[in-house]
Amino acid sequence: xxxxxxxxxxxxxxxxxxxxxxxxxxxxxxxxxxxxxxxxxxxxxxxxxxxxxxxxxxxxxxxxxxxxxxxxxxxxxxxxxxxxxxxxxxxxxxxxxxxxxxxxxxxxxxxxxxxxxxxxxxxxxxxxxxxxxxxxxxxxxxxxxxxxxxxxxxxxxxxxxxxxxxxxxxxxxxxxxxxxxxxxxxxxxxxxxxxxxxxxxxxxxxxxxxxxxxxxxxxxxxxxxxxxxxxxxxxxxxxxxxxxxxxxxxxxxxxxxxxxxxxxxxxxxxxxxxxxxxxxxxxxxxxxxxxxxxxxxxxxxxxxxxxxxxxxxxxxxxxxxxxxxxxxxxxxxxxxxxxxxxxxxxxxxxxxxxxxxxxxxxxxxxxxxxxxxxxxxxxxxxxxxxxxxxxxxxxxxxxxxxxxxxxxxxxxxxxxxxxxxxxxxxxxxxxxxxxxxxxxxxxxxxxxxxxxxxxxxxxxxxxxxxxxxxxxxxxxxxxxxxxxxxxxxxxxxxxxxxxxxxxxxxxxxxxxxxxxxxxxxxxxxxxxxxxxxxxxxxxxxxxxxxxxxxxxxxxxxxxxxxxxxxxxxxxxxxxxxxxxxxxxxxxxxxxxxxxxxxxxxxxxxxxxxxxxxxxxxxxxxxxxxxxxxxxxxxxxxxxxxxxxxxxxxxxxxxxxxxxxxxxxxxxxxxxxxxxxxxxxxxxxxxxxxxxxxxxxxxxxxxxxxxxxxxxxxxxxxxxxxxxxxxxxxxxxxxxxxxxxxxxxxxxxxxxxxxxxxxx
Amino acid sequence: xxxxxxxxxxxxxxxxxxxxxxxxxxxxxxxxxxxxxxxxxxxxxxxxxxxxxxxxxxxxxxxxxxxxxxxxxxxxxxxxxxxxxxxxxxxxxxxxxxxxxxxxxxxxxxxxxxxxxxxxxxxxxxxxxxxxxxxxxxxxxxxxxxxxxxxxxxxxxxxxxxxxxxxxxxxxxxxxxxxxxxxxxxxxxxxxxxxxxxxxxxxxxxxxxxxxxxxxxxxxxxxxxxxxxxxxxxxxxxxxxxxxxxxxxxxxxxxxxxxxxxxxxxxxxxxxxxxxxxxxxxxxxxxxxxxxxxxxxxxxxxxxxxxxxxxxxxxxxxxxxxxxxxxxxxxxxxxxxxxxxxxxxxxxxxxxxxxxxxxxxxxxxxxxxxxxxxxxxxxxxxxxxxxxxxxxxxxxxxxxxxxxxxxxxxxxxxxxxxxxxxxxxxxxxxxxxxxxxxxxxxxxxxxxxxxxxxxxxxxxxxxxxxxxxxxxxxxxxxxxxxxxxxxxxxxxxxxxxxxxxxxxxxxxxxxxxxxxxxxxxxx
Lengths: 759, 523
Description:
The complex is a heterodimer of chains A (759) and B (523). Chain A is of the alpha/beta class. Chain A is built from 28 helices and 30 strands.
């Protein structure tokens, strides 16, 4: 009472709460949050991989501060990094193992949930075979955890129906690198942004998704020419000297035309091509199918601009291409990656300072799972089916060769289909949330309901965890130790700053403990493993002499140098800035890169009378993925609390809506209601944009299940949709547009066919 | 072996820019120089890291944003331009917050030019939050006071980088020094302005902006669709109206005193008491809108530049003098003494209401900053005249009542005209037409019923019913006349309250562009 009166009269201005204090490490900071200690670590959000320190006070994380010594971020951090300590005590955390009893998820002990799941797995294995167990993991874990998980799933549970959410984001880059250069592995360094004369950003909205990369562009003192290729004038497009607003999904044709022009004009680096590549002749012939005029019609980019972009590859000493989801999330994602690589191979823009085709990764440890995850390859970039690699691996880890899979199992989308067919009976999902992130949500929800057992291992109560039969409550960033590898192959150390919240355990501990419920598995796979370092040490041996060579890396070195880029070994004790410099040959058999003849196809479901607009999806800087981490942090969530739809003023006028109004969207797959309109010129007429983060307006309901046949990556970026406003419920009218054609690619009876190649 | 964590304050982050570094080299200030922000809109990517860094540094919760990022858009696809404005305090050369603060709680530090706020003396009156054309100061609910960006001056003093500067991945925010004279004479008009931001000349803002070339002319703020009424400030609604009623009543009292020389019936102490009550009540109420009412009396500290201090002092004395007048009437003091005291009281009262009106004549809030504000404030006086008229009807002195009521009707007509004019001029061409049109939209879209009530009640209570009273008085129907008069007084009082409510609720500040969802992050 007295306090209330005092408060009303304004006696207390809480000066103590807001006063500053001098911290010996970081200078003046908030006194109330002044840490007792600072713990060296790495950010757990995106693939940039920023170095930071976690401030800990009385056992709670209270601060995150950028590490000024770290190569990646040199002290700066983005808004999610700056507030990252807040996620540890988020109300969204799952704090104890849960098990479904009478339709409710209730608390249970670790022993009970382990044995329940182990018993079910064993039953299913006995009745339907080991492959009736599917596992979908993530790019969020630490490398040690990926390696441990992959080894357990493939060699312990004995199923190769194991994939990660990286298939939703990086798979096309992986497969593109593999088919063009012989191996996965992003070629460049962030330093290349500082050294390039020309930077081509393709389908990469780094302003929202990788803001810290801006630092490296800013550091570039050469005033580089920036080309942004994107159907949407994103925040990133604002950086562009040349903005290339291509029509949706015409990117591959554009790159083929650029290659055409380079060859036509004699702009290629003949010496480089001869010495380092295969397939030049075939490519030259193939490109005749992509004359600039035809491609100009398809892409909506005039010939002059096409020549201007192509010219940049020849007039500049160093050209860097960087891409992300705009390229990867495509039915022809893999080939588009190769078409980009073609440009760099033709002009010798690779393996040098400031030059290269650079795929930027999405998640903090997408790379860790690519290298050690055991999903699309055997650990250490060993290809499935390669007998030598298999026996090598078996020898290193001391297991029988017979238990190592010889081929890749089902990919993400194939796992879902196999559940649908009743082939897979149990699914273990680790740190990912398909019920927001996967395509065709209606179907997915139906399919998941068919499972005998759904196990979700997560630190947060995700939409998928909510329908699980068992939830393994995992520790999260800041509560566990290990390494993350970022886009530029830099292995970074993440440390444990605080004890895992409540009754949670690190993913490493969960897997090791869970493996003990299977006879002999723990002893065989994880003999005397009890800390992440044990996994890391084995992983180092597994990667020795591989392209992703970690053998020279130690935890101590990582802390001392702020991360090290693989390959790192005796010859390269402090790592390697870029791949495919003269001393690092391509990983093909003849050590030459492949110039590949890749083809563009029109969209299988273009805009039509019923669905006259093309929907593009993406992200916003304030949120992370499916928002399980960020939605309860007011400082982030307030800035973007729900999804919105970007609509061009022309379409808005037709729909009689203005900014702030609400409408619904439909596609052939479903409907999304109650989404707020943002009228903006950042999207072209007849195209719209919606961020995918929000379960409140679940945009992935609309996305068709179309996948790149080579990578399995979904085609998130183009979906034909209609908008329904209150005033115009039938939506807008389809405007037949003179769509460009390439004589070589024909559409017959709605089937796309390539003309017989004239040889 | 783990390397020891070293002191990062003096570590060179090798960015070649101020960003990343926990300490920065800023030039030693020479005479006539001060520190300022530079914001480079050509490199900002709108990531809002600066907003979060500021809150983390200062321990502010998500609803207290000292630094905000505004977004604008112009042009046509694909030649569209998105423009971001990250802004905290512009550490102006002539800051309105300093001038207006009634408690002298703002200090422009002599040496550095940084404008800092003294939390201890702040009474939470909100006046600076109105006054600043950039809406920089923000009221912090949990502290009962206003707070604002201080350029991390304690950090700067020891060479440390402000949090926003340290974290910006684009080095879009930097600290510089400027020569004040040169800035004012030459550079300010070219370098201190930003679309959708108040003219830098209002306060002589110091922030230097680097803008992209060829900005489209049609840059629009992305939060245009967010149009919310401003705080209704109910204690102030009552305070202002009540003091203005008192002034009107006292004016009538004074007229009566003058007329009594000519032989009209004298004024008595009850009348004097009646006109004094509203202002006394009003002043008490006004303390309620403060975050720290117990410090209300300190609001008189800045008579030199603050209209708020002047208002508080003048109206305080006004009420005091009116009390003396009551006492003088009670003891039947002589005419001469009465007249002298009353003239003085009236002058103080008029100055008080003038000061009160001038509080709102601020460039930051265009709908207030019009002459109709002054007219309407004084215009309320007719209610006081009517109130006194009511008393004369009750005590059945129709020879006083009729002239008073007639005077009140004239006053009502004037107030009606001012109100009409006030609304009409909202739609005039003006350099602030964007804000004025939004005020007009609030009147029409959010408060059309209140607006309608305002006019009907004013016409009915201020003109029709008083005319009826005059007729009734001529037929000596005092009881009925008293009743009608009562209704009339109540009606016009509510009418003025509703108009004042609209005055506060419909104001639209100059401010800055906001975000699509969060808007301006103010109020």
